[in-house]
Amino acid sequence: MPSLIVPHVPHYIHPAVTQEQLDYADLAIIDLSKASDAQGRVELAAQVVEAMKMQGFFYVVNHGYTAAQTERMFDIADVSFSGVEAEEKRVYTAQMKQTGSYQGYKPRQYWVINMDVTKKKHPEALRPLLPEIDAFARHTHFNVLHPILRLMALGLELPEEELVNLHGFSSRSYPRSAEDELNTKNVWLKGHTDFGTITVLYSQPVAALQILGKDGKWKWIKHLENALVINAGDSMEFLSGGYYKPTIHRVVQPPPDQRNHTRLGVFYFAMTDDNVRLVPLASSPVLQRVGVTRRCEDKDAPNMEAWRRGRTSAYGQSQLKVATAGGEVEEEVIGGVVVRHHN
After folding, report:
1. Beta-bridge partner residues of 28
2. What is d(CA 87, CA 80) in angstroms, rounded to the nearest whole number?
3. Distance CA 58, CA 44 (A)
4. Are 256 and 201 in contact (CB under 8 A)?
5. Which residues, other chains included, contact 162 with Cβ-Cβ below 8 Å and sequence gap of 6+?
6. pLDDT tens, residue order, the chain (343 aa)
7. 334, 309 contact by CB (below 8 A)
């Protein structure tokens, strides 16, 4: 068969990996190629549970995309910035505060996101690329997210499809391309947790992402070629009754040998269907043994749509209350749930 002809886009050249000696987090590596049979999934589920307890982040390898396919997605991601003029970007500016939606471009110190490709119009430069973006989103959803959800369900001793069934592709899962802009004091994005269930980050070489360790120290996330970096968000904490807790993470200024380079990211943020109430999956034998930790009473728990809208409309807009004497932690209350940000 003839090879597929894809639109030409300029090749995005990543900066070199930093040579600085950084204090990296020791993350587990989950090999998804071992998830093809039941015994392999049981073994991987135990690894995921341990990774979530120890670090809250882990790598995924053998996820079904070749290095060349991943590079192509970074080429496409860069088109969102280098291939769209400022005037056209203004047409696609998001109305986060007004509508609770973060689809579209944001001012500096916000995020830049391109949404589910079938639901919104897109800048002209991206339109020929939509089939590839759609294929990428579907691959990440069905061949990365779903296997991870099955492993996490097994870790709770639930049926494998329990979490998968809450994550329809046509719901609120977003393929995202993002370029982080300098904020203040070398912290680009404050310490926070993601508000969805699972975040998939396609690893890239500019060091900037850090996680807060159990010892209270920030650790860098190291780049692994063609690996994915996975973490859970608040919604997974709700559903798992606190068993899978999200880890505080932040984006900081890169080390000196990378500071003149752009940090371009390819992400996939997953959420449940909008109508799913974010209450613990109490049928889990694990939760029945270890107990449930709730961030709010079940009767007050939001559904995914309310939680998403509350978090996105408040992001960068709300007044935060200092929660610690030194000001290291700030709080806001969204839908009756306390949300913490770490300076």
Report:
1. 58
2. 13
3. 12
4. no
5. 153, 156, 281
6. 445 688 999 999 999 999 999 999 999 999 999 999 999 999 999 999 999 999 999 999 999 999 999 999 999 999 988 887 777 777 766 544 444 454 665 544 333 334 355 555 778 888 899 999 999 999 999 999 999 999 999 999 999 999 999 999 874 444 333 333 333 344 445 567 788 999 999 999 999 999 999 899 999 999 999 999 999 999 999 999 999 999 999 988 999 999 989 889 999 999 999 999 999 999 999 999 999 999 889 999 999 988 888 877 665 555 556 656 555 666 666 565 655 555 5
7. no
Within 8 A by CB and 6+ apart from 341, the residues are 190, 191, 192, 320, 329, 330, 331, 332
Q: Which residue has the tokens 């912290």?
A: 187
pTM of the model: 0.83
Which amino acid is it at 265? G
Q: Which two tokens stand for residue 252?
A: 């900081």
Is beta strand 28-31 parallel, antiparallel or unpaired with respect to 57-61? parallel
Q: CA distances (Å), 278 to each of 73, 100, 238, in order?
A: 32, 18, 6
Q: Which neighbouring-strand residues pair with 198?
A: 232, 270
> For residues 301 and 277, what is the distance between their CA atoms, to the nearest angstrom?
7
Residues whose CB is less than 8 angstroms from the CB of residue 76 and which lie 6 or more positions away in sequence, other chains included: 9, 126, 129, 132, 133, 136, 177
Instruction: Kindly give the pairing relationship between strand 187-192 and strand 321-322.
Output: unpaired
